[in-house]
From TrEMBL:
Alphabetized Gene3D superfamilies for the sequence: Winged helix-like DNA-binding domain superfamily/Winged helix DNA-binding domain
Lineage: Bacteria, Bacillati, Bacillota, Bacilli, Bacillales
Name under which the protein is recorded: Helix-turn-helix transcriptional regulator
One Pfam family named in its UniProt record: WCX
InterPro entries the UniProt entry points to: CBASS_pafABC_assoc_protein (IPR051534), DeoR_HTH (IPR001034), HTH_11 (IPR013196), PafC-like (IPR028349), WCX_dom (IPR057727), WH-like_DNA-bd_sf (IPR036388), WH_DNA-bd_sf (IPR036390), WYL_dom (IPR026881)
SUPFAM superfamilies reported for this sequence: Winged helix' DNA-binding domain
Organism: Cohnella cellulosilytica
Keyword vocabulary terms for this entry: Transcription, Transcription regulation
Domain HTH deoR-type: 2-57
Length: 319
């Protein structure tokens, strides 16, 4: 809408000293001529826009023009900006970029330096190491589908390695630990499910769904499903001294308990945890190599032993 564009231009001009008309045209995907018509409309509305000629020139607002910031305190504004900046690290979004500009613009020039310091005390970078363009594309596509209330279709590979076609009504994107998930209503299973984005293939947007099903996201329903009876197993693990920091990283310092030293005098640590038993769990335990041992239950202990023997078979010397 033109009104939204006019307001966004005012915000940008209030936040920056000078902006090039070409930069505005690229940002809003309109012609430079349209930008100049917008500037005329802003001037007619009584907002003082000034043009600066020559090298380094551009468009700006009269000195001292600022938006009213009486609704939020400086600390509240800083918290909002920190949250927006953290979300922006996972995928680009023009609207969020403009919102950040709006938030920063309401800070008076005299307090700008202190406000900038506040918003740099905490940096939350949600993007994966090395970047992941495909993940960003999926997040953007699923966000669009959820906003427009359209179903999505994709091939999904579950934790057991089974692949199936899914038709899902998307409701929300969830960042859990270090992975993105989609929480939505699976039409084939006729219930809400949590889908890991990295396990999706061939993602496409489908038709609009007529009824938005009631769901209380405040209760974090995916956590309730994860703890459902029969899905998790109580584990008792023993870690070596050199893997103590890894155990603390995954389970928390409080969960790692020192065990009485054995005959060899080596320090060992015990962790009790409740985790879902699936292929991910076996791989997770094996990732610690010889520094972790399953003590209970016996069934998982035997499964890890079987898989370890299979690994040895792959690397055994060929005669």
């Amino acid at each position: 809408m033109k009104l939204d564009r006019l307001l966004s231009i005012v915000i940008l001009l209030a936040n920056r000293k000078i902006v090039q008309a070409k930069e505005l045209s690229e940002l809003f995907e309109v012609s430079v001529r349209t930008i100049y018509r917008d500037i005329d409309a802003i001037n007619q509305a009584g907002i003082p826009v000034v043009s600066y000629q020559g090298a380094g020139g551009g468009i700006g607002l009269s000195e001292g023009y600022r938006l009213d910031r009486s609704v939020l305190t400086e600390a509240e504004l800083a918290d909002i900006v920190n949250a927006l900046q953290s979300v922006s690290t996972i995928y680009p979004d023009r609207d969020r970029k403009l919102l950040l500009e709006k938030m920063k613009s309401v800070v008076p020039a005299a307090e700008a330096e202190r406000f900038q310091f506040r918003t740099r005390q905490l940096v939350v970078d949600l993007s994966p190491w090395g970047g992941s363009g495909h993940l960003e594309e999926k997040v953007a596509l699923l966000k669009k589908a959820a906003e427009e209330e359209r179903s999505v279709e994709f091939a999904y590979c579950d934790a057991q390695g089974n692949e199936s076609a899914r038709d899902v009504e998307p409701y929300t994107l969830v960042l859990k630990r270090q992975s993105w998930y989609l929480y939505g209503y699976c039409r084939g299973r006729r219930q809400f499910r949590l889908f890991k984005l990295f396990r999706m293939k061939g993602l496409t947007i489908g038709e609009r769904f007529d009824v938005r099903r009631p769901v209380e996201l405040e209760r974090l329903p995916w956590n309730e499903a994860w703890h459902a009876s029969g899905k998790t197993t109580r584990l008792k693990l023993r870690f070596s001294r050199r893997a103590r920091h890894l155990a603390e990283e995954w389970f928390g310092v409080e969960a790692v308990v020192a065990e009485a030293a054995g005959e060899d005098g080596e320090e060992r640590y015990i962790v009790a945890a409740e985790l879902p038993e699936d292929r991910w769990l076996y791989g997770f335990i094996l990732s610690f190599g010889p520094d972790a041992e399953v003590l209970e239950p016996q069934s998982i202990r035997e499964e890890i032993r079987r898989q370890a023997q299979g690994i040895i078979g792959h690397y055994a010397a060929k005669t």
